[in-house]
Amino acid sequence: MAILSIQSAVAYGSVGNAAAVFPLQRLGFETWRVDTVLFSNHTGYGAWRGTVLDPKLVDEILRGIEERGVLPRCEAVLSGYLGSVELGAVVLDAVKRVKQVNPLALYCSDPVLGDADRGFFVRPELADFFREQAVALADILTPNRFELETLTNQRVDTLAAAQAACDALLAQGPRAILVTSLDVAEIPAGTAALLAATREGGWLVRTPRLPIVANGAGDLTAALFLAHFLKTGDAGAALGETVGAVHAVIAETVRSGAAELAIVTAQDALLAPPNRFPVERVF
Hints:
Elements: E1 2-10, H1 17-26, E2 30-39, E3 50-52, H2 55-67, E4 74-79, H3 85-101, E5 106-109, E6 114-115, E7 119-120, H4 125-137, E8 140-141, H5 145-152, H6 159-170, E9 176-179, E10 191-198, E11 201-208, H7 217-232, H8 235-256, H9 267-271, E12 279-281
Parallel strand pairs: 1-2, 1-4, 4-5, 5-8, 8-9
Antiparallel strand pairs: 2-3, 6-7, 9-10, 10-11, 11-12
Helix pairs in contact: 1-7, 2-3, 3-4, 5-6, 7-8
């Protein structure tokens, strides 16, 4: 089982491919890593060194993989932070080539645009790129609440509104939507919630909110959800496994006082989360 992961790269820290590749490998997936930026650390530190890679170089690397004749073995493509429409076009072209030789391959797109606290942290034209191009090609989308609102131009402040927004995206082609940071009216303070929605229904998992800003948690979540969806084909089951593992990683990060996600220390929890949180059918 192989996954092509096209994301940012940092030498220090756990974001982008640094948050996705090892967990995917730990779960048994051969993972082909293609980096889109090479930074010393994630930008949340306020200072970093490195460079954004030219989309032409990323395309060259992707075509080199294709020339090995291995794309028919690729079960899924995972993409995260893109940074530019030009890079997004390279990613979608690669997805189309994978799907051409393996029609069963999935595309999981994490539409990184911003969040409720900071607003947009990408170029504004990327929102249109996702709306007009990426959503229709994606099989799985993993937006946070802010990104769900942006993609659908709908306010999401209740579970009913979240359902309506997910339905709007599902109507465009995706098979599953995973909504992270779902801070809506039904979710009390001190609780974190994630929602998985398909055309068959919606499933919610609530966990205690941990006292940390966990950079890279979204990248880890998208990777794990894709992995478990590939294994089970069941969005509700994939949600439960994903949330248990991510919560365990964040809890270990808090316990150890680590500055970055303690993915390696908590790696056993990727396979067997110590806590299983209830998966509620909500629609």
